[in-house]
Specification:
Thrombin, subunit H; 6-stranded antiparallel β-barrel; 20% helix; 3 domains; Pdz3 Domain; 381 residues
Length: 381
């Protein structure tokens, strides 16, 4: 038995040696230890390919950023320098973005960025220079503020203006700002909604806002929203809590109307007519469900809910909605403004938004089912 075991071991060893010898003779296989020269080669960096050419889309974005970035500024209203800060830090309230409006040093930003208007603010331009900012004025109605810095005209690049009148859902947009204090960050997306109503400074409601999905974070407020040509179409003002890609911007057509008034007068004085309108969602169906049973043939218009004492509407004799026990009786329903039929409450609000104290407006009404017309003169709030 020992002799048999020894024979098997000897045969196994011989077979193994033959296999190894055959493997070493196989062409293309080299199992020898690496040479010193090969080890040195492995320690060298690998060759890099030349940078790939930009796609047309990339070329557009690169050119757009280079053209617009000099117009975008960093706004610090709390005395904390956050330019080029660590990405894991969170900026305090009062830090945001803005853009150059004129070569006279006017900077536009969001009002909520510069809440502490009695304190010092600092504006940092794209070239890194820092300038003390004077508070020029504000418009609470649209969360807008204008600052002024003493920078020389040659350092200031006013942003190009587009228009918000012809915007469409699905249109490409880009934003440049300072999210988390990281200066001149570019993000992109599309317009995802129009004519939105958002909450503004001091509890006001801002109408006509642009909804988009370009990523926004703390520090983007006050920065520009751009079209694909690099023109300003809005100022980024708010994001939906918990979502960085549900953002809202104030349209440039509003900005272009309001900012010159702020520069001229210091504070935008918004007119009022002295009435309160029913919410947009409060249509005739809800009125009927609440007890209104009148048959007037009225199928559109904006319901006047309340008349303010001593206001223009009260002086013109306008009538509010009358509520009884389980019943509603319509007073005035606004169906036209200056001869233009109304389709919605927002349409009326946007029309009145363009007027100033002292301006007059003709309102077409349905009062208790009968057509009426009144003329009101706007007064300052």
């Amino acid at each position: 038995m020992p002799l048999f075991a020894g024979t098997v071991f000897l045969l196994t060893t011989c077979v193994t040696l033959l296999v190894l010898l055959r493997v070493r003779r196989e062409p293309g296989l080299d199992l020898s230890p690496p040479k010193t020269l090969d080890i040195l080669e492995l320690r060298k960096p690998r060759p890099l390919a030349p940078a790939a050419a930009f796609t047309p889309h990339e070329r557009r974005n690169v050119a757009l950023f280079r053209a617009v970035a000099p117009s975008v500024v960093h706004v610090d209203a709390v005395g904390t320098t956050l330019l080029m800060q660590r990405a894991d830090e969170v900026p305090p309230d009062g830090v945001g973005s803005g853009f150059v409006w004129s070569r006279r040093g006017h900077i536009v930003t969001s009002l909520h960025v510069v809440r502490n208007r009695s304190g010092a603010s600092t504006v940092t331009l794209a070239d890194g220079s820092k300038w003390p900012a004077e508070f020029v004025g504000m418009d609470e109605e649209h969360d807008l503020a204008v600052l002024a810095i003493p920078a020389p005209a040659e350092r200031l690049v006013p942003i190009r203006l587009g228009s918000s009148a012809g915007l469409a859902i699905g249109q490409d947009v880009l934003a440049i700002g300072n999210p988390f204090g990281l200066d001149h960050t570019l993000t992109s997306g599309v317009i995802s909604g129009l004519n939105r109503t958002i909450g503004g400074e001091g509890g006001t409601l801002i109408k006509g806002a642009i909804q988009h999905d370009a990523p926004m974070h703390m520090g983007n407020s006050g920065g520009p929203l751009l079209d694909s040509s690099g023109r300003l179409i809005g100022i980024n003002a708010a994001i939906r809590p918990g979502s960085s890609q549900l953002a809202f911007a104030i349209p440039v057509d509003v900005i272009n109307r309001v900012v010159p008034r702020i520069i001229d007068e210091g504070m935008e004085s918004w007119p009022e007519l002295g009435f309160v309108l029913a919410p947009e969602q409060w249509g005739l169906e809800q009125l009927q469900a609440s007890g209104w049973t009148e048959e007037t043939g009225l199928d559109f218009g904006v319901v006047v809910v309340e008349i303010q004492l001593d206001g223009p509407a009260a002086k013109a004799g306008m009538q509010p909605l009358q509520q009884g026990l389980g019943t509603l009786k319509l007073g005035d329903v606004i169906v036209a403004v200056d001869g233009t039929p109304l389709a919605s409450r927002d349409q009326l609000s946007l029309y009145l938004d363009a007027l100033r104290p002292g301006d007059r407006v003709r309102l077409g009404l349905r009062r208790f089912g009968e057509p009426q017309e009144v003329e009101l003169t706007f007064q300052a709030r």
